[in-house]
């Protein structure tokens, strides 16, 4: 094990050096400028718009506290050591004790695991605000290490989730008066931060609202998703009558014009929203877990050479707001990291798998299914996996920054119209990166991503396609771009994503970091260790 950790350490050190530079290697073509985003003579970023006004969104709001904020060093309240037996209850009891402490500036304290191996046979859950589980080291660097060794029947190692769950936005259920209105604009472009409503009465600056885009038969047919069939059976892409929901905070109101703190990752076309229109709804206060983290840990499970449809060990589940995971080495789990909620940072997390997954359907080692999620300087070293995959209806920004995927498989938007994902300086030199129409794959995954962007990435190949009425972009990317039809068909070949400077990197080297610097200044970059 010592030799293997040293080998990992060498690999991670080289990778971190390359990634932190945020620029191309000597073997890669030098940089040019993109026509879609480029620095102006005054240094500010300028954006090209489509005929309807759509543009690449400002992704810089992704991450802890909305981006550019240091992850806190929460004071230790309890320190425990491994017993050599099952330590599940030992860790649970320590977390419960810290969870009972009062909040001080939003935090209760950290449970510190002394170096050593902790055998656990059931999930460890943090369910109170302001609690951190911290090890003494992950093994990604030289020095002490705290290992959670998973044993027994499969389970998830660590969860950050309160019992109350996410906000519902359903005022009727709680007795809270419902405040609703509808967008009055004929078309709201993707990347916009403002729109007009029929009546802004009842809303105020600072309110959190849900923007409910109705899924109509007209829109499904426009997207050419009405005729999905697999094995002779009709497949449903997204059910007509359901909604695609984005959560945003109001930055300002002027008359019936509402401004948002975070731009919209989708477009809203009145032609396809039916009589109901796009609804703006005031939500209740947040019920998510907040200000919690897991850090400096090694998590290892038994090897799992099985299909992911069978029970299996997973590593992390985060459902919160302003939470984080950092410096974690994960070995042999499957579907390792799942993120929902809002304003989450996952940084310096590595998933290593030697056991080959069995079956044609693959597990997703990172699943960023929240909003304002930042996956930063993370790695997957594995074969026959999705390095990363989104679920259905995810509203960005979701940013994958300076990540390294080592293996022969893919990172992709996986299903059912998520919007606003950025691959920024991602490397998958033996694999691929996709924004595509998956057709009747799965149970009718169909168009999986709109308004997504790959920026200065390097991959063996890309399958990136433009959906009807929307764009996906690949800018400054190196690697083959493949034209493909909808799965299980031979033709027609679907429209390729909007390409710019293919085969040659562009400036700025990192779009996310440039947008963050422009919005918040140099300190924001230093706060996230750039």
What does this structure look like?
The strands form 6 sheets. The chain has a 26-stranded parallel sheet that branches. It has a 6-stranded antiparallel sheet with strand order 11-20-14-17-18-13, with no helix packed on it. β4 (76-80), α2 (88-99) and β5 form a beta-alpha-beta unit. It has 3 domains: 1-30 and 428-530, no CATH class; 66-165 and 287-384, Single-stranded right-handed beta-helix, Pectin lyase-like (Pectate Lyase C-like); 171-282, no CATH class. It starts with a helix and ends with a helix. Helices cover 11% and strands 38% of the residues. The chain is globular and about 65 Å long. It is mainly beta and 530 residues long. Mean pLDDT is 92; it is low at 1-26 and 164-175. The chain is built from 6 helices and 40 strands. The longest helix has 20 residues, at 2-21.
Integer count of domains: 3
How many beta strands in the DSSP annotation? Answer: 40
The CATH class assignment of the largest domain is Mainly Beta
Mean pLDDT: 92
CATH topology of the largest domain: Pectate Lyase C-like
Radius of gyration: 23 Å
Count of helical regions: 6
What percent of residues are in strands? 35-45%
Determine the CATH superfamily of the largest domain: Single-stranded right-handed beta-helix, Pectin lyase-like
Outline: globular
Tell me what the CATH architecture of the largest domain is. Answer: 3 Solenoid
Alpha-beta content class: mainly beta
Low-confidence stretches: 1-26, 164-175
How far is the N terminus from the C terminus? Answer: 32 Å
Largest sheet: 26 strands, parallel
Estimate percent helicity.
10-25%
